């Protein structure tokens, strides 16, 4: 009871020290948020250049350098590689990666490594929160035993506290961010849930933006379901786009029409595939866990297959655009390497997959992306080319609809444009010489109707 009251008071009066482990897309904004709320925050990352950049006042995630500078100079935000900071922390939030292994199975080695060190270094009374996306059961089945094995605490909910609280950040979203998106918290015990709710209430714009789950497992599954929901719906609309292509119908028109229904319909757009650190990977976490229950997640796997096919379809559209020129030796320019609009992130980007397929098929491929001047793909450094390459390309491929791309200028210069984002739809293209091929807008001659009689 004493440790509960002490932590609760330290959260209330902002005297708690919070360590955020992993200063990436999730951890850095979170750490800065806690620092801005008046907590002393230790930002722990094992990537030395990241720590150096933060110490120099650079926000390498959201470009908010002034916030980093003010937080570092006030002593509220302390970027560090020294893991011993855990030993004098009241709260430790884990934001390390949860990738897949080569066999597409969960790789929770980063979480395990951190949990083990927490167990060895933490002081009694600490609240540990896992934010990394993972399968249901990780907090209780993996993190809890590793923390207990350190021997510094003995009973969860009494002399230390443990919870899962998923991050829901949507990079590039102008309306929703960490501080105004409802935060789910699920503790291993009810006390763990309550303390975690109290922690995030200090951060969010309104206290009712914190929603308690019945358990850490429920919170873990809820997070996976959010991402699977997106993956499945994107796959469904991608399938519709492929069908429209065959049927000489326009998927963008079908979506505009369906979107007029004010209830029971939520629009998802087709595209060249799915990317980012979450949507392509997270569904496999649930598929893997489901096997333990002799359960096959067929819908999820089918969605994965459909989405993985889309980069191949884009290459088919490029071949269609090139016509008799053919793909071998063709100068193909990918417009956009980022996995989505206005973000500087090419992790799991379909552009990378399209680039690889084009290279394999002997096209001369380049990319142009104002958000990503250089990217490393399979150990090779690629650099974004000059916009003058648009006019030189045999085919330009709009992969990412960045705001910075000027459609008029691209259409004026390009010989052929493959549009994978519906960018050209609903626009008058008659004044341009450019040949446009749009994903999901079937332009083949309609199939003849064959009588079976
Ligand atoms: N990126 C998103 O939009 C997003 C959204 C919701 C959830 N998530 C989840 O959040 C988690 C983190 O994702 P991210 O995008 O922030 O990853 P990231 O790769 O951007 O950042 C992770 C950071 O952890 C650091 N790190 C790794 N091992 C460490 C260790 N042992 N000690 C200290 N630091 C260590 C890395 O150096 C890196 O800076 C993942 O589970 C991801 O699925 C991500």
CATH superfamily grouping of the largest domain: NAD(P)-binding Rossmann-like Domain
The CATH architecture of the largest domain comes to 3-Layer(aba) Sandwich
By DSSP (H or I, 4+ residues per run), the number of helices equals 14
Strand content: 5-15%
Cofactors and ligands = nicotinamide-adenine-dinucleotide
Write down the Rg: 25 Å
Number of strands: 15
- What is the N-to-C order of secondary-structure elements (H for helix, E for strand)? HEHEHHEEHEHEEHEHHHHEHEEEHEHEE
Give the C-level CATH assignment of the largest domain.
Alpha Beta
Q: How many separate domains make up the residues?
A: 2
Query: Quick check: average pLDDT?
Result: 95
**End-to-end span in angstroms?**
82 Å
**How many strands, what sense, and barrel or not for the largest sheet?**
8 strands, mixed
Helix content: 25-40%
Biggest sheet: strand arrangement: 3-2-1-4-5-6-7-8
CATH fold annotation of the largest domain:
Rossmann fold
Poorly predicted regions are 445-453
What shape does the CA trace take? elongated
Q: What class would the helix/strand composition place it in?
A: alpha/beta
């Amino acid at each position: 009871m004493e440790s509960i009251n002490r932590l609760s008071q330290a959260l209330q009066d902002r005297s708690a020290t919070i360590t955020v482990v992993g200063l990436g897309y999730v951890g850095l904004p979170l750490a800065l948020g806690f620092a801005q709320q008046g907590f002393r925050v230790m930002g722990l990352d094992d990537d030395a250049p990241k720590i150096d950049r933060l110490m120099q006042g650079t926000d390498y995630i959201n470009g908010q350098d002034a916030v980093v500078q003010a937080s570092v100079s006030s002593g509220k935000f302390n970027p560090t590689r020294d893991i011993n900071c855990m030993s004098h922390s009241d709260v430790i939030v884990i934001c390390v990666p949860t990738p897949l292994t080569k066999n597409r199975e969960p790789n929770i080695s980063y979480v395990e490594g951190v949990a083990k060190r927490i167990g060895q270094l933490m002081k009694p009374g600490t609240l540990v929160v896992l934010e990394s996306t993972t399968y249901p059961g990780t907090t209780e089945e993996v993190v809890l035993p590793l923390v207990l094995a350190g021997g510094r605490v003995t009973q969860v909910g009494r002399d230390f506290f443990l919870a899962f609280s998923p991050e829901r950040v949507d990079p590039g979203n102008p309306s929703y961010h960490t501080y105004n998106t409802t935060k789910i918290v699920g503790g291993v015990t009810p006390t763990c849930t309550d303390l975690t709710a109290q922690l995030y209430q200090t951060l969010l714009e309104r206290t009712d933006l914190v929603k308690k789950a019945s358990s850490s497992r429920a919170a873990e599954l809820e997070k996976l379901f959010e991402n699977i929901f997106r993956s499945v719906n994107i796959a469904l609309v991608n399938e519709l786009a492929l069908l429209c292509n065959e049927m000489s119908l326009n998927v963008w028109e079908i979506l505009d029409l369906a979107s007029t229904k004010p209830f029971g319909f939520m629009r998802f757009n087709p595209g060249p595939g799915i990317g980012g650190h979450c949507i392509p990977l997270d569904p496999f976490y649930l598929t893997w866990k489901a096997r333990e229950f002799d359960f096959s997640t067929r819908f999820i796997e089918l969605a994965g297959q459909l989405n993985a096919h889309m980069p191949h379809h884009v290459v088919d559209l490029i071949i269609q655009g090139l016509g008799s020129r053919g793909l071998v030796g063709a100068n193909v320019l990918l417009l956009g390497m980022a996995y989505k609009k206005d973000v500087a992130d090419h992790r799991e980007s379909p552009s990378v997959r399209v680039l690889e397929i084009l290279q394999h098929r002997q096209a001369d491929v380049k990319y142009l992306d104002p958000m990503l001047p250089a990217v490393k793909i399979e150990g090779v450094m690629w650099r974004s080319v000059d916009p003058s390459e648009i006019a030189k390309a045999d085919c330009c491929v709009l992969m990412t609809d960045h705001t910075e791309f000027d459609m008029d200028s691209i259409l004026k210069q390009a010989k052929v444009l493959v549009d994978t984002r519906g960018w050209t739809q609903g626009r008058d293209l008659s004044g341009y010489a450019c040949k446009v091929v749009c994903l999901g807008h079937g332009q083949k001659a309609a199939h003849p109707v064959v009588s079976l009689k």
